[in-house]
Amino acid sequence: MNPRDPQKPFGPVVVGDLEITVDKDVCIGASACIAMAAHTYALDNDGKAVILDSADQDSEEAIIDSARACPVQAIKIKRVSTGEEIV
Ligand code: SF4
User: Fold this and answer.
1) Measured on CA atoms in the order 13, 18, 23, 26, is the torsion positive or negative?
2) Which pairing describes strands 75-79 and 41-43: parallel, antiparallel, or unpaired?
3) Cis ω on the peptide bond leading into residue 71 (within 30° of 0)?
4) Is residue 22 within 8 Å of residue 50, measured between CB atoms?
5) Mutation pick for ligand 1 pocket among 24, 25, 27 (CB with most ligand atoms within 8 Å)
């Protein structure tokens, strides 16, 4: 597993025009995000979703859907170019 930013495995990190952040204290390891965007997340040893270096391989739509799919709203997505909080 290669975090996109080893210093900040849960973000915020930028992927394309999206800034992704996982609140690891909220994440329950349900893996819904991985089902939607398998290149973007993987669970670490504590069962928390880490943001991967390969996130560019998932579409913007898939990444946004992954945040919407999280049952505990642990993923926040912001559009970098506009500052809009999408999820
Ligand atoms: S869907 Fe939410 S709770 Fe489940 S692993 Fe992803 S971030 Fe964590």
Assistant:
1) negative
2) unpaired
3) no
4) yes
5) 27
Whether the predicted model's global pTM rises above the 0.85 cut: yes
Q: Which domains does the chain have, with CATH numbers?
A: 13-79 (3.30.70.20)
**What is the predicted pLDDT for the residue at 64?**
98
Q: Which two tokens stand for residue 44?
A: 């670490």
CA angle 11, 42, 31 (to 5 degrees): 105
Q: Report the chain's mean pLDDT, rounded to a whole number.
A: 98
> For residue 57, what is the DSSP state?
G
| pLDDT score, position 30 | 94
- The answer, yes or no, to whether any atom of ligand 1 lies below 6 A from the CB of 62, is no
